[in-house]
Amino acid sequence: MRKAIAILWPSFLFGGLGTVLFFSLLDPVDLFFVGPLELSRKAGYTLGFFFFWGLAAGSSWLTCFLEQRNSHAVR
């Protein structure tokens, strides 16, 4: 449980930061891959947030995984 919190909490913060930075430059309705799906602006923000959160969580998980493998190899 502690490892999950160590991965998900920082990735939540960076997911929010990534969403703010990305959507301060682009409107989700204007993106070509969102337009044909006819998603609302709020749905675009939500999907963008979960995308950035998942990206950051994957990066954090990979770091924990490689650190764990490296600590076993050193001993």
State the gist of this model:
By secondary structure, this protein is mainly alpha-helical.
Explain the overall architecture.
Helix content is 77%, strand content 0%. The protein has helices at residues 2-25, 41-74. It is built from 2 helices and no strands. It has one domain. Helix 1 (2-25) crosses helix 2 (41-74). The model has no long low-confidence stretch (mean pLDDT 85). With 75 residues, the chain is mostly helical.
Helix content: over 70%
User: Into which percentage range does the β-strand content fall?
Assistant: under 5%
Query: What is the tally of helical segments?
Result: 2
Summing up helix and strand content along with how strands pair, one would put the structural category as: mainly alpha
Shape: elongated
The rounded Rg comes to: 16 Å
The arrangement of helices and strands along the chain is HH
In this structure, how is the largest beta sheet organized?
none
- Find the count of extended strands (DSSP E, 2+ residues): 0
